[in-house]
Amino acid sequence: MAVSSAPGKVYLFGEHAVVYGEPAVPCAIELRARVDVEQRTDSKLRVHAEDLSLDGFTVEYAGEPEGRPDVDVSESLLNAAMGYVDSAIEQVRDVTGEDDVGFDVTIESDIPLGAGLGSSAAVAVAAIDAGTRELGTTLEIDELAERAYRTEHEVQGGQASRADTFCSATGGAVRVEGDDCRSLEAPELPIVIGFDGGAGDTGELVAGVRDLREEYEFAADTVEAIGDIVRRGEDALAAGDIEELGRLMNFNHGLLSALGVSSRTLDSMVWAARDAGALGAKLTGAGGGGCIVGLDDTNETETALSYTLGCEDAFRAELAETGVERLE
Ligand code: MEV
């Protein structure tokens, strides 16, 4: 058996726009998905997943739809999660040339599913890493990130960036622009997360932005303006100017809202954070529901979020310095 874990992430800046070649800056955070992979004697794939949402649930999935029990999570989310595992295992088969190999895969995750914290990228990275090592191949980090990106690209209907998967594979703060992926120096950031208990469908949200961008020139301009914010944000990050980072995050949230990917609860959590004195707050990830990220070095934002209607959980997150971890 091989066991790997990989971290989730928050976007300081640039989600959605990164799909169109603008830069983005995600940061890995200390919430992890751990994946155990064991080779089977037949060619079946059996997946056992626990705690893919903060509420926690258990799924036994034997590769057939009827193998899935009733669980308290939407069928489309469950399909998406299992799609990432299927696709990650296809990458393992492809990279090792072992086309008919079967696996038992067990997933444990602290990262809520589809909530903007990079659960799918973390599962893809950890599953490909553990699966290839189970067959005696250890991938370089860049190759692992590239293979995990192909998983997301396939499951998101052919539109994905390398940002989530590169960040999860390497850890730390990263900058991604097209296929140029690199690590960044980052100061310690006082990250607070608010979670509304919901989730968004990344594929659908990405398609919504694509349609808007094709229909309206000013939507395309909005995507470019997000790119400008990211470039300013990089300078603020390099200078350790957390106040400027916060201001730029507020701008970024406004533009994401204009692109239609925020929601009532995400907006109210963002406003609760700002009212409580956060230096900045924005949705993180694909949007539609899920999480916001704020910067605040006091406890005020966390406390205010815990009293905000629609916020189910508020917590601090530490930057994850390491990406994939090879545990066994
Ligand atoms: C999702 O976490 C981030 C998006 O930019 C999609 C992607 O980059 O693949 C919305």
From TrEMBL:
UniProt subcellular location: Cytoplasm
Pfam families membership: GHMP_kinases_C, GHMP_kinases_N
Main location: cytoplasm
Obligatory cofactor(s): Mg(2+)
Function: Catalyzes the phosphorylation of (R)-mevalonate (MVA) to (R)-mevalonate 5-phosphate (MVAP). Functions in the mevalonate (MVA) pathway leading to isopentenyl diphosphate (IPP), a key precursor for the biosynthesis of isoprenoid compounds such as archaeal membrane lipids.
Name this protein carries in UniProt: Mevalonate kinase
GO cellular component: cytosol
Family the UniProt entry places it in: Belongs to the GHMP kinase family. Mevalonate kinase subfamily.
Keyword set, alphabetical order: ATP-binding, Cytoplasm, Isoprene biosynthesis, Kinase, Lipid biosynthesis, Lipid metabolism, Magnesium, Nucleotide-binding, Transferase
GO MF: ATP binding; galactokinase activity; magnesium ion binding; mevalonate kinase activity
Subunit structure, as described in the record: Homodimer.
Pathway: Isoprenoid biosynthesis; isopentenyl diphosphate biosynthesis via mevalonate pathway; isopentenyl diphosphate from (R)-mevalonate: step 1/3
Domain GHMP kinase N-terminal: from-to ranges: 84-172
EC numbers: 2.7.1.36
Active site: 164 (proton acceptor)
Record-listed ATP binding positions: 112-122
Catalysed reactions, as listed in the record: (R)-mevalonate + ATP = (R)-5-phosphomevalonate + ADP + H(+)
SUPFAM superfamilies: GHMP Kinase, C-terminal domain, Ribosomal protein S5 domain 2-like
GO biological process, one term: isopentenyl diphosphate biosynthetic process, mevalonate pathway
Residues covered by the GHMP kinase C-terminal domain: 235-299
